[in-house]
Amino acid sequence: MIHYSISYNNPHRHLVDFELSTTTNGANKMLFQLAAWRPGRYELGNFSQNIINWQVFDENQNQLFFKKITKDLWEVKTNKIKQINIVYSFYSNQLDAGSCYLDEHQLYLNPVHCMFYIEGRMNEKYQIKFNIPKNYKIATSMKRDGNILSVKSYDLLAESPIICSKSIQHECYYVDNIPFHLWFQGECNINWRKLKEDFTSFTKSQIKHFGKFPVNEYHFLFQITPYKSYHGVEHTKNTVILLGPGQDLMTKRYEDLLGVCSHELYHTWNIKAIRPVEMYPYDYTKENYFKTGFVAEGVTTYMGDLMLYNSGVFNWSEFIKTQNQNLERHLTNYGRFNLSVADSGFDNWLDGYKLGAPNRKVSIYPDGALCMLMIDLEIIKNTNGKKSLHSVMKKLYMDYALKEKGYSEDDFKKICLDFGGLNVMKIFENHIYGTKDYIPTIKKSLSVIGMKLKMKKNPNLLAQYLGIIGVIENGNIVIKKVEPNSIADKNHIAPEDLIILINGKKINKNVSKQLKSSNENITLKIKKKFSTKDIKIKTGNYYKLLEIVKKQNATKKQLLLRKIWAS
Predict the structure, then answer these.
(1) Are both 364 and 231 inside the same structural domain?
(2) Span 449-493, pLDDT tens digits
(3) Do residues 500 and 397 share a domain?
(4) Residues 385, 237: one domain?
(5) Helix (H, G, I), strand (E, B) or coil at 529
(6) 174 DSSP β-pair partners
(7) How far from 497 is each of 264, 471, 479, 535, CA to CA, in Å?
(8) Residue-averaged pLDDT of the chain
(9) Among 218, 114, 233, which residue's Cα sits nearest to residue 174?
(10) What are the DSSP calls for 76-101, one per residue?
(11) Is residue 303 part of a domain?
(12) Are 118 and 105 a contacting pair, CB within 8 Å?
């Protein structure tokens, strides 16, 4: 067994103290590995940069020699030593859904960041003792006995975040006798009746489509912030959700709350149980390259929202808004003509979580979701509503997850083709592995259910008039995107430039209103790295958008297939 003791002093310093102790089992040397990345975020994490004062001792408290083999691998000589003790501190000052944080209000840990496994002993049990204030509650999916947690292997440890705080709120709901725990850390007023009712509905819907739930319990761990935030990370038996502001949780942010929770719950099947062969098992020491990010996140993005509508939690307008948001994100990213969604998924390890080079790539989330919408509707059409993307995912679950093996790109493609026919192959060739325009295919797909695409003016006038997408920071507009060949592009305006004045006036919070009051010619004061200049621009019509709407003259068959699709 591997024992951990966790404590801290002076929480304002954000330093958590760890002590690892275990027997050597007669080994001459031991290798202690800190994960190089965490499942759910496909980029190297460099977690070891937060390790401070790593020391190692024998059973008699004699200090031992060690050396680092890589940035996150330590080697210790253990000749004639029975027990080994390692002590270190971990700087914990990042609050999101997949990190570590300590202050006077809470201790929050993602073990994959800060706790080691021993090479050759990954399947050994872990026992973790917490030295925390007596009035602190502990939220976790690990087995608990007071302040002592235990878990059967490192894989499960890595997937078991922990929140310790005196202010945690907790409720539970049940589906098929499985407990689903709701843990809330942070200030918020929760309508428990409504929350549990909606969560029960979409949970039932998801389980119904797969036939069974992969694990015997589940935990939603919420980090609620006083400021605007949005982030979720999936795990085998739990998820961490960061959301704020807390005062808007049940009002303005409630749709977001439902959306991210349905998404993360669907991950319990898709990516946690149904896993790409390239990550079966996980290799925590390096990149686990795979091209099926469009399945891991594209299917989940699409299905998470569809499940909310299927279950009656979302009404039609709330659901179709999610699809139009995917469409907008797709249309405002000209990387769609440069790198396919499959290749963009592979490159997640390179730049998947930042803007990166302008228009280099697409996102596996909205673009993958649009591809899954196309495939779903093609399967429904080909089988006259008898099969759908639900059928594909259930088969993956039955044939791969339950048989404890990973699926390949070809496995997923074959199942889709078996159900959807040759037109599905065109979707793979043109859009998943190619960079052909999505819109003609989306139009054809939507016609199956009596839907269509309609032109929509971009409500963001900075985008519509000038071809610029930006955010307001410190009284300036920081330019994030520029449409290629737009009037802004032709006037040499680029991402990272600042707009500091519009028509000689300071930037208002409502930039669109400020632009609307202008005539066709707008003067921008642009600040670049080494120069500032005025640029006079004539407005145009850029970053054109489309939206999904119902056809007025849909046929009976189209209406029937629409009903099947949405039920």
Answers:
(1) yes
(2) 999 999 998 999 999 999 999 999 999 999 999 999 999 999 999
(3) no
(4) yes
(5) coil
(6) 179
(7) 36, 11, 6, 13
(8) 97
(9) 218
(10) EE-TT-SEEEEEEEEE-B--STTS-E
(11) yes
(12) no
As a whole number of angstroms, the distance between CA 108 and CA 130 comes to: 12
Q: Identify the three-state secondary structure at position 51.
A: strand
Q: Are residues 435 and 510 in the same domain?
A: no
Amino acid identity for residue 17 in this structure: D
Give the pair of three-digit tokens for residue 272: 């946690």
CATH number at residue 203: 1.10.390.10
Query: Does residue 49 form part of some domain?
Result: yes
Q: Are residues 220 and 241 in the same domain?
A: yes
Nearest-angstrom CA–CA distance, 126 and 209: 35
Q: What are the structure tokens assigned to 384, written together?
A: 């006259």
Task: Count CA within 13 A, CB hemisphere, residue 66.
Answer: 23
Same domain, 161 and 233: no
d(CA 125, CA 156) in angstroms, rounded, equals: 10
Structure tokens at 122: 């990954």
**pLDDT tens-digit series, residues 180-204:** 999 999 999 999 999 999 999 999 9
Three-state DSSP class for 112? helix
Burial class (CB in 10 A: 0-12, 13-18, 19+), 426: middle
- Tell me which amino acid residue 318 is: E
Provide the β-strand partners of residue 538: 521
Q: Are 47 and 35 in contact (CB under 8 A)?
A: yes
Give the count of domains, the chain: 3
Gyration radius of the chain's alpha carbons: 26
pTM: 0.97
pLDDT tens readout for residues 216-253:
999 999 999 999 999 999 999 999 999 999 999 999 99
Q: Which domain holds residue 282?
A: 170-447
